[in-house]
From TrEMBL:
Name of the protein in its database record: Glucose-6-phosphate 1-dehydrogenase
Pathway listed: Carbohydrate degradation; pentose phosphate pathway; D-ribulose 5-phosphate from D-glucose 6-phosphate (oxidative stage): step 1/3
Recorded catalytic activity of this chain's protein: D-glucose 6-phosphate + NADP(+) = 6-phospho-D-glucono-1,5-lactone + NADPH + H(+)
GO biological process, any: glucose metabolic process
Renumbered residue ranges of the record's region Disordered: 455-476
Gene Ontology MF: a single term: NADP binding
HAMAP family reported for this sequence: G6PD
Cross-referenced Pfam families: G6PD_C, G6PD_N
């Protein structure tokens, strides 16, 4: 299977915070890979902006080093790397001061007709001031795009304030809120599997689906980010955004068309249909110390911390399609493996004609985000060979690396894909402001209750699959979590 690369129109991409971690680790290496794939047009310009006083040459050196580190020195195509670096420019700009704005204006005046996108790879407190400045100075034209990424608020109130700051200077159609989970190949494939095949959609409802499990598990702890993480926790850092997006794409109705607002309308309806989560349906945890690794509270440098590094919950969706089919979500740090998946577990057949045989597993569709992106359908078949009827559970595996062959290696990573969507002006894989607010409204009820209760999350062993109580959450309903394994 050959993947087609469709070049985008010429653009100016201005990256605020171009000297920071996200820009060096993800954004700029991603753009280099798009150039390798032939998607970057001749006249593209990438302008880095930050307070550090760097010449363009010093900035190019910095990014050369980043490419060597994050792509690999031996994997770089020297000719393309040189061409890529020549596209880079740099302006010293202080987002909150006067320095650099005139220079940036002058640089952009040369290419007024090109698509213009501003990627704000800076702390969220700078989103509002930069948006306002881009508007006031006229640097942002009415077709310009602005890109922001989590954290998009800390609660409903702050999310509303941020949306207001952005919408004071940009129309909603110009605002691209990134959730990089939506840029993953499998996540988009979930939509293709559901809506481009006749096979699954008739089964995709409470009559046939027993329950859905969504897991985002990390094996590392919060490490050096402990102080920052302690103000956030698993609900704010993962559930309100990434797991919520996965839930929406799994549960939403088919949109009339695959376009940005229709898809986002359907996702929003799912969030509005979420029931409040009962206290007994939530388990929060903090990891214990391991042999050489500190505990969560040591990492957070806060012995009294009430912040969760793990959360599991059961949520019901009150609508015709899903009433009676719970969705179980869990995410945590320092767990057994790094693994993310959506598992749709189907019901037992209505009557078993093989009643005398040992119980077997029910059908399941597993959408794996990491590692090894792919989709597996778990089926029961007759065990091959003589000796009468015995049943065996087998996976029908569609690991993309196998199905796509060598072209899978050049599959763009989430950031690459999403940045190219920004340039193309396609908002389908980006969150709309009302979605973000609705997700906060739902999460806030739990967050406020936890603050009121003031209870410490349960301790769990590092390298385990989470607190004991999380197992109970499933067992109580006669179900069990899938194994966390890489
Ligand atoms: P970072 O490493 O601290 O980089 C921040 C960047 O902002 C630096 O380039 C800094 O450069 C620039 N900056 C700071 N103050 C500025 C000002 N007043 N005017 C202009 N530039 C300024 O942070 P990061 O990890 O790259 O994260 C950037 C944003 O992405 C944050 O909102 C973060 O939450 C989000 N994010 C990051 C990741 C990740 O993997 N890193 C993942 C998801 C989301 P100077 O000091 O030279 O000005």
């Amino acid at each position: 299977m050959v993947s087609r690369v469709i070049p985008v129109q010429p653009f100016d991409l201005i990256i605020f915070g171009a000297t920071g971690d996200l820009a060096r680790r993800k954004i700029l290496p991603g753009l280099y890979r798009r150039m390798v794939a032939g998607q970057m047009p001749q006249d593209a310009r990438i302008i880095g902006a930050a307070r550090s006083a760097l010449t363009t040459r010093a900035f190019r050196d910095m990014i050369r080093e980043a490419l060597e580190t994050f792509i690999g020195k031996d994997k770089l195509d020297e000719e393309i790397a040189a061409k890529f670096l020549s596209v880079l420019d740099y302006v010293t700009v202080d987002a909150t001061g006067e320095d650099g704005w005139d220079e940036l204006t002058k640089k952009l005046a040369k290419t007024k007709s090109q698509t213009r996108a501003f990627y704000l790879s800076v702390g969220p407190s700078l989103f509002g001031p930069i948006a306002a400045r881009l508007h006031e100075t006229g640097i942002a034209t009415k077709d310009s795009r602005i890109v922001v990424e989590k954290p998009l608020g800390h609660d409903l109130e702050s999310a509303r304030a941020l949306n207001k700051q952005l919408s004071d200077s940009f129309d909603e159609a110009q605002i691209y809120r990134i959730d990089h989970y939506l840029g993953k190949e499998t996540v988009q494939n979930l939509m293709a599997v559901r809506f481009a095949n006749a096979l699954f959609e008739p089964l995709w409802n409470a009559r046939h689906v027993d329950h859905v499990q969504i897991t985002v598990s990390e094996s590392i702890g919060v490490g050096g980010r402990g102080g920052y993480y302690d103000k956030s926790g698993a609900m704010r850092d993962m559930v309100q955004n990434h797991l919520m997006q996965l839930l929406c794409l799994t549960a939403m109705e088919p949109p009339a068309q695959f376009d940005a607002n229709r898809v986002r309308d359907e996702k929003l309806k799912v969030i509005h249909s979420l029931e409040d989560v009962a206290r007994e349906d939530i388990v929060r945890g903090q990891y214990r110390a391991a042999k050489d690794e500190p505990s969560y509270v040591q990492d957070a440098e806060n012995p009294d911390s009430l912040t969760e590094s793990y959360v599991a919950l059961k949520v019901n969706i009150s609508n015709w399609r899903w009433s009676g089919t719970p969705f179980y979500l869990r995410t945590g740090k320092r767990l057994r493996a790094r693994m993310s998946e959506i598992a749709v577990i189907f019901k037992e057949p209505p009557h078993s004609i093989f009643a005398k045989l040992p119980a077997h597993q029910t059908n399941a569709l597993i959408i794996r985000l990491q590692p090894d992106e792919g989709i597996t359908l778990r089926m029961t078949i007759k065990e091959p060979g003589p000796g009468g009827m015995r049943l065996a559970d087998v996976p029908l595996d569609m690991t993309f690396a196998d199905a796509l062959g060598p072209s899978a290696e050049s599959m763009p990573d989430a950031y690459e894909r999403l940045i190219m969507d920004v340039i193309r002006g396609d908002q389908t894989l980006f969150m709309r402001g009302d979605e973000v607010e609705a997700a906060w409204e739902w999460a806030d009820k739990m967050l406020n209750d936890w603050t009121e209760q003031g209870r410490k999350p349960a301790a769990y062993d590092s390298g385990s699959s989470g607190p004991e109580d999380a197992l109970g959450l499933m067992h109580r309903d006669g179900r069990r979590w899938r194994e966390i394994e890489a």
